[in-house]
Automatic annotation (TrEMBL):
The keyword Metal-binding does not apply. Coiled coil: none annotated. This is Glycosyltransferase 2-like domain-containing protein. It comes from Novosphingobium sediminicola. Keywords: Glycosyltransferase, Transferase. One of its GO terms (molecular function) is glycosyltransferase activity. Belongs to the glycosyltransferase 2 family. The keyword Transferase applies. Residues 10-171 form the Glycosyltransferase 2-like domain. InterPro entries: Glyco_trans_2-like (IPR001173), Glycosyltransf_2 (IPR050834), Nucleotide-diphossugar_trans (IPR029044). It holds the Pfam family Glycos_transf_2.
Amino acid sequence: MSLPDAPRISVAMSIYNGEQFLAPAIESILAQTFGDFELLALDDGSTDATPSLLRDYAARDPRVRPIIRENRGLIASLNQMLQEARAPIIARMDADDICLPERFERQYAFLMANPAFAVVGAQADDMDEEGNHTPCFGPMHPTTFEDFLATIDSGAHLMCHPVAMFRRDVVLAVGGYHAAFRHCEDLDLWLRLASVTKLCSLPDKLIHYRHYAGQVSSRHATEQQTGAAIARLAYHERLAGRPDPTEHLDRLPPIDGLDMLFGREGISRQVREKVALGLRYSKAGMRDSGFDLLLRHVADGGNRDGLWRTVARLVRFGEPMRAMRLAAALATT
C-alpha cells in the first residue's frame, strides 16, 4: 500500500510504556473503514517493548509513522504531533483504547458537512482492564454546541479526549495544548476553542474506553481536579473580556496563590472548596493531597454537607486513620 503525499487524517497517539494494550489499539486504527490516514505513534521514552512493537507495525503498514525519543511528557508529545502531522484533520487516540471500525468515517463526514465545527467527539463504551464491558452511568457527552456550552459549569465531562477529531489549523491558532494544565490539558483546550469555534460529540459510541488503576485519572486525581477548576475560571475570565492569567504559564501556582494570579480575593477558597468537595467520592483523591484540601476546607469553615458520610466512606476506602482525622476536624471546628 502506498501513501498519498498528504493523507486526509493524521492520528495522534502518544505512548509511554504501553505494550500491554498497544497491539489492539493499533489494530483498531488499521481496521478503520476510512483508510486515508497516517498514524503518528510517538513513543515518549518507554522502557518496555513499545518501540519494537511500533517498528514492527511500521514495517507491515506504511501508514504507521513511529517517532521514538526520550521522555518529555504527554503535552509536549501532543504538541509535537500537531507540528509533524501532514493532514489537516487530527484524530486523537490513546494506546489503551479500541476504536470501532467506522469511527473515522463518521467523524470525518461530520466535519466535512459542518464547517462551523472544528471539533467532533463521540460517545464511549466503557471497559475494564481485561476488556470486559462495564456499565456507564454518566450523562452523554453534549451532542450540540448549545448543550456543550450549557455543560461547561456543570462539572460533567465535555468530550472524551481519545475519540476527539479536530481541525489542525484551528487548534494551532489557539496555541495547541498548554503546558500548565497537566492531566487536564484537553479540558483547557476545549474551553479555549469554545470561544472561537463550535464543538460537539456524535451520539454514536465509537470507542471502547479502558478504565484501570494505572491510568492518569486514577494516579493524579487531585491535580487533575484542581487544574479543571482553574481552567473553568480562566474560561470565565475570557468570557468577561478580561485577560486569561493562565495563558503563558508553564505551571499552575498552588491553590493559595490563585488570589494573586486572578487579581482578586476569594478565588483560592472557591477553588479549594470545589476541588475538596468534588474529591469526596474519589478513592485516589482521598488517598493523596485531596484529603489535606478537605481538612483545610473544614478548618476554613466551609460547607460541611455530607462530610460525615465521607468519614464512613474513608473507612470503606481502607483509610481508618484519615476517617478519624476528618471526624475530629468536624467535631472540633
